[in-house]
Amino acid sequence: MSVEKPEFNQEIDVVMRVMHHAQAAVKSRFIQEVVPNRLTIVQFNALQHLHWYGRESGMSVSELGEHLGLAHNTVSGLVSRLEKHGWVVRRKCDEDRRRARIQLTPQSEQLFRERVQHAADFWQNTFGQLSPEERENLIGSLKKLKQVMAKPVWPSYAQLHPRDADHLREKFETELDELAQAKLKLVGIRLILAQIAEKQNEHELAAYLNQAASEEIKHTNQLFNLLGHGENFDKLLSALVDEDKAVYEELLALLDDAPCAEEDEELVILQQMLQDSHRYKRWFRSVHKQKNR
Would you say residue 13 has pLDDT above 80? Predict the structure, then answer.
């Protein structure tokens, strides 16, 4: 004789909707706290991790990046913006003066003190509206539900962020590659500024900018050699061909959408850039084909 199992679909649906509503209410309160301070969610998460794990000695950019699951360059920019608006400060590490530790400022500490009061007000205006008997019954029911539910087994921080030798080496090489790419951008910016300085008869400034660009090229080349990119010249040349193709297509799209007449300076410049880009693309593709014969 089979025993029919009771159906709880309606009750479960109510429980899930109530839990979802409660989560939405808590999240809404959280966002209302963040927005007036002109913080993004990611920025506030960074401050929270510094509050939880770096209150005594602070955290390095790499450590904060591991906690947030973000790349080194992304976290560095994030910290710079937080520092600009007075939320964090960089302090030299006592053990290694070349490294900096990121710490919360009194402004951030005040933010987290206010959060405690905001949370108390929130629960007073919600949970506090229930009668003592209703609160007691609700807590009792939630405790029973917790007892019959299996305890979730979450992966540890060490499991999520393994620190074996291979992992650390891979992470280090990724950060080196990001640094090389950042230096490549600096080369271009400094060369452009040098040309502008020459046109403005700022010859000494132009000389400094050209020298700095030359040194950045040397540093970037050293980083590429460390990463083994210099040994894989064909791969880099192939990537350059792809980049030229992407720039060429972007220029075509800009010309299609340009809100100007044919004789306008913007359009003339874009057309000249398109011709030059087409020439570069053909030249690099030709060189690449010759090397692969």
Answer: yes
